[in-house]
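Retro notes (design track)

What went well: tokenization of the new backbones is finally stable.
What didn't: we kept losing track of which sequence belonged to which structure.
Fix going forward: every design gets posted as structure first, then sequence, in one message. First example under the new rule, 506 residues:
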């Protein structure tokens, strides 16, 4: 059976590669695709605005089945079967996906490019003179955003200059733009959006200063400019990357910027307008802790591609548990490698995601170094499990609380993670879902700063409100209670344990 599955996937990959090699001639002619393919949401199966291996894996799940959501050929209705025709169409769109790059040049200066199209927003304090800009966009006339010397360093004879009317007048040339206006250039669309203060005088709405949405190679990058949290952020549409000011004083502070990120819900949010004249690294760190969406602090000069944007930058540890031998469970994100205790058995092909670790419930467990203190901020933990028994523990913090386990009477998912000990300490949070039924389940615990939330198979099963969580500085145990009590050892499989430093919504 395993051979057959591997053979089928290999054959599909071969057909897929052939589809890529064929180019636009035969495939486009048969299935009605033009020479210049446009982004098609019907082929972006997971709706992340990029067509790649993830979409291929989704299609592969329904090979030779009548799954309408991935039956894309012939266009527009499919033919009732997912086969090589659908694979070839997917391949053609994948071939046309262009990588977009972003670079933070410190403070509020950003560079965006794809292929030979290069856009700068508020270039400032540059040490080189690349003269590579197709367009320079300036949000407003303050000197930390408008610097003619730096504009000259990136500009060439054909560079377009786009800015609000007062900035164009200062510069002496260029194309004026106002909030709500769009300018189409060769290969890029520039949309001006409002940027203003609501509770300070520095950037009045009447000035008609702007932020920008840069649409390039099917991606939309929002560079907010100097702004507070404003209602117009609710109408931006799908944003792939959002650069949001988080330094405070003249703009949003970190808390307000995180609120903006939660409204916009981009694929990736990046704090900027910090680290030079206003704002500190601590502001940027607070932003990433408070943002519900994926967020990352960029270092000055750092470059990220559109493939990088899909990474979860909040993932602080990830034990894949795919080892085949040895006494180490490796952390693929950092150096929090676990030590295998007892005699658990590696299952290289027996996990939910590749391999897993089989524990016998009689002294088998994994111990790790310290990862996080539950009292210091939001976090989430998820793991795949199979088996288990009532009263036994999947994940705990050494000498402190049992984070995830099965309750002692029914086997329902529960957590003992609680506020500091006191007279009115709350009971454990118990869901209504039995996890000891011998079926693979993805279980999770999320602390969002005010609530404990339990998930099973990415569905919320229980929550309650708590003011805080008790502090703890120990490492973690997989498959045993916090004090290694005899009845706490988990008899079953554990796979793919992930911990995030934010509140994750599956």
């Amino acid at each position: 059976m395993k051979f057959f599955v591997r053979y089928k996937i290999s054959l599909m990959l071969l057909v897929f590669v052939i589809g890529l090699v064929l180019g636009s001639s035969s495939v486009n002619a048969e299935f009605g695709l033009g020479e210049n393919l446009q982004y098609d949401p019907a082929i972006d199966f997971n709706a992340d605005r990029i067509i790649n291996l993830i979409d291929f894996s989704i299609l592969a799940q329904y090979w030779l089945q009548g799954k309408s959501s991935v039956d894309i050929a012939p266009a527009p209705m499919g033919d009732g079967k997912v086969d090589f025709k659908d694979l070839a169409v997917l391949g053609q769109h994948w071939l046309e996906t262009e990588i977009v790059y972003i670079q933070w040049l410190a403070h509020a200066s950003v560079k965006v490019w794809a292929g030979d199209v290069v856009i700068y927003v508020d270039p400032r304090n540059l040490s080189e003179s690349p003269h590579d800009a197709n367009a320079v966009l300036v949000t407003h006339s303050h000197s930390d955003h408008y610097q003619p010397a730096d504009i000259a360093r990136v500009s060439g004879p054909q560079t377009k200059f786009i800015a609000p009317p007062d900035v164009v007048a200062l510069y002496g040339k260029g194309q004026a733009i106002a909030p709500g206006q769009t300018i189409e250039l060769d290969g890029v669309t520039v949309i001006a959006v409002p940027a203003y203060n609501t509770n300070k005088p520095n950037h009045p709405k009447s000035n008609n200063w702007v932020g920008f949405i840069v649409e390039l190679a099917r991606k939309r990058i929002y560079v907010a400019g100097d702004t507070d949290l404003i209602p117009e952020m609710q109408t931006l549409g799908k944003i792939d990357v959002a650069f949001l000011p988080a330094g405070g004083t003249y703009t949003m502070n970190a808390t307000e910027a995180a609120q903006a990120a939660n409204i916009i819900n981009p694929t990736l949010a990046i704090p900027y307008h910090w680290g030079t004249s206003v704002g500190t690294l601590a502001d940027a760190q607070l932003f990433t802790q408070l943002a519900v969406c994926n967020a990352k602090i960029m270092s000055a000069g750092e470059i990220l591609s559109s493939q990088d944007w899909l990474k979860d930058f909040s993932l602080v540890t990830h034990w894949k548990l795919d080892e085949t031998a040895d006494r180490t469970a490796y952390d693929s994100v950092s150096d929090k490698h676990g030590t295998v205790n007892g005699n658990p058995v590696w299952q290289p092909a027996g996990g939910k995601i590749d391999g897993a670790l089989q524990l016998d419930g009689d002294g088998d467990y994994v111990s790790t170094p310290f990862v996080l203190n539950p009292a210091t901020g939001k976090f989430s933990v998820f793991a795949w499990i199979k088996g288990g028994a009532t009263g036994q523990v999947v994940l705990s913090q050494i000498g402190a609380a049992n984070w995830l386990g099965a309750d002692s009477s029914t086997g329902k998912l529960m957590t003992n993670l609680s506020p500091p000990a006191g007279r009115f300490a709350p009971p454990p949070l118990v869901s209504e879902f039995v996890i000891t039924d011998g079926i693979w389940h993805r279980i999770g615990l999320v602390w969002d700063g005010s609530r404990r939330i339990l998930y099973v198979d990415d569905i919320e099963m229980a929550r309650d409100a708590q003011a805080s969580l008790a502090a703890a500085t120990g490492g973690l145990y997989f498959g045993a209670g916090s004090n290694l009590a005899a009845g706490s050892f988990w008899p079953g499989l554990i796979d793919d344990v992930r911990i995030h430093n934010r509140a994750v919504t599956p």
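Added context from the reviewer: Residues 1-8, 18-37 have pLDDT under 50 and may be disordered.
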